[in-house]
Write a structure and sequence with these properties.
By secondary structure, the chain is α+β, with helices and mostly antiparallel strands. It folds into three domains: 3-130, Rossmann fold (3-Layer(aba) Sandwich), CATH 3.40.50; 136-220, 2-Layer Sandwich (Dna Ligase, domain 1), CATH 3.30.1490; 226-266, no CATH class. It has eight helices and 14 strands. The chain has helices at 16-29, 110-117, 127-134, 136-145, 158-163, 165-175, 199-209, 254-258, and strands at 3-10, 35-42, 48-50, 71-72, 96-99, 153-157, 180-184, 194-196, 215-220, 226-228, 231-232, 238-239, 243-247, 263-266. The strands form four sheets. A five-stranded mixed β-sheet has the order 4-3-2-1-5, with helices on both faces. Strand 2 (35-42) and strand 3 form a beta hairpin. It starts with a strand and ends in a 10-residue tail after the last strand.
Length: 276
């Protein structure tokens, strides 16, 4: 008997389009002999729209956007036993949800908490790990508590920057220096991130980052390698092989990640057994 898998993607964040690409990649990788795939699209306005069950992979992201061809519904309808009155006609039950959302209202514990309240199993991190991992400043505090080495950083709220941009820039220059990176605290995919080499670039970077979040983190520039490992499992987690990303641009920005395809990916990465 197949598992009925609900894929939730899209969303209201600035990473909406990235989420569509993630959904497309996951659908192409799923075994349709094991899973019934139910696409659930959240529009940029936050409306939940359910498409028809997929019998085969789709070829492009436009096929996953259902504003004109799906059934809008309340997310409570995902649990038909708790909320039978919310279930649209011909709505098939979901066994497990796979959140494929990026950024706020997706990776930050919000949808995870909703699914917990609805008693619906889901893939990925729980509420606390998602919430802490989304906020770069909170995550850095946790790293520091665990004595993990990390780049030096400073955090700023928009109200403080607005009152005294000069003081904020001066703090960055005294504590971190140039080059440095300015990032929205609660976002990913390199959206709103800038590399700064001087005061003029720093001021522009602050203005850009504050368009996406009321909290910004600034990190010192360091020379390092982009190494990543996938971890799967709960009580008995297992690590994947090591991958390395070698961008050919100044840093691994949005364009390098998702648009130009001109980035070297090395799997496995050249690391020693001790480093692994």
């Amino acid at each position: 008997m197949k598992t009925s898998l609900g894929l939730v993607y899209g969303g209201k964040s600035a990473e909406h389009n990235v989420s569509l690409q993630t959904a497309l990649a996951v659908i192409k990788a799923l075994n349709t002999e094991k899973f019934d795939i139910h696409p659930i699209y959240i529009t940029e306005k936050g409306e939940w729209v359910r498409g028809a069950r997929l019998s085969e992979p789709v070829s492009n992201v436009k096929m996953l956007q259902f504003e004109q061809g799906g059934s809008a519904f309340s997310p409570a309808a995902l649990n038909q036993e708790m909320f039978p009155q919310e279930a649209p006609e011909q709505n098939e039950a979901i066994d497990v949800v796979f959140p494929l959302l990026h950024g706020p209202n997706g990776e930050d514990g919000t949808i995870q908490g909703m699914l917990e309240l609805l008693n619906i199993p889901y893939v990925g991190n729980g509420v606390l790990a998602s919430s802490a991992g989304m906020d770069k400043v909170v995550m850095k505090h946790l790293f520091a508590q665990a004595d993990l080495a990390q780049a030096k950083y400073a955090a700023f709220l928009k109200k403080d920057w607005t009152r005294s941009p000069e003081e904020s820039c001066k703090q960055v220059e005294e504590e971190l220096g140039y080059p440095c990176f300015v990032k929205p605290a609660n976002l990913g995919s390199s959206v709103g991130i800038s590399k700064c080499r001087n005061r003029e670039e720093l001021q522009k970077a602050f203005e850009l980052a504050f368009q996406y979040d009321r909290k910004v983190v600034v990190e010192e520039g360091i020379n390092g390698r982009e190494i990543e490992i996938g971890v799967l499992g709960n009580d008995d987690p297992k690590c994947s092989v090591v991958g390395e990303i070698a961008p050919k641009t100044d840093f691994y920005d949005y364009k390098a990640k998702y648009e130009d395809g001109d980035t070297d990916l090395m799997i496995p990465a050249n690391v020693s057994d001790e480093e692994y």
